[in-house]
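Priority: medium. Attachment 1 of 2:
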């Protein structure tokens, strides 16, 4: 399937998981630290899993809102919490998992479930990119 690219960005990492990242436009700049759970020092720096979780959560919430607009469902308030895990794969190397917890207060539960399923199946580019590669669980809070 081809993609009509409407936006492109770039970021550069130096020093791997214990280095720095910076977007091409300089808006995103951050120090990286290996989490203690992975044998690092941890500390007050981010890591690739936090960045992936933030991006997936923001993108998925936008996808849910897009579907709601298509179905004429008014969303007053919503949030998505993405939990991203990383660890060794049984086949070797490392892999990630993702869990999306969606909150849609004031929306009928059946309607809300349909919104998140449609967003995950049809709209969100992160969901498309991970499908078949990453174990992603989506639930309604």
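Attachment 2 of 2:
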């Amino acid at each position: 399937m081809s993609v009509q690219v409407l936006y492109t960005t770039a970021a550069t990492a130096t020093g791997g998981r214990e280095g720095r990242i910076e977007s091409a436009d300089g808006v995103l700049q951050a120090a990286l630290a290996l989490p203690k759970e992975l044998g690092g020092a941890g500390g007050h720096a981010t890591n690739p899993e936090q960045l992936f979780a933030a991006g997936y959560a923001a993108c998925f919430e936008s996808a849910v809102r897009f579907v709601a607009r298509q179905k004429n469902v008014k969303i007053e308030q919503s949030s998505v919490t993405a939990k991203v895990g990383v660890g060794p794969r049984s086949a070797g190397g490392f892999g990630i998992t993702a869990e999306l917890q969606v909150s849609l207060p004031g929306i009928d539960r059946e309607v809300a479930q349909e919104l998140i399923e449609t967003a995950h199946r049809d709209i969100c580019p992160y969901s498309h990119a991970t499908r078949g590669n990453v174990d992603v669980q989506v639930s309604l809070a």
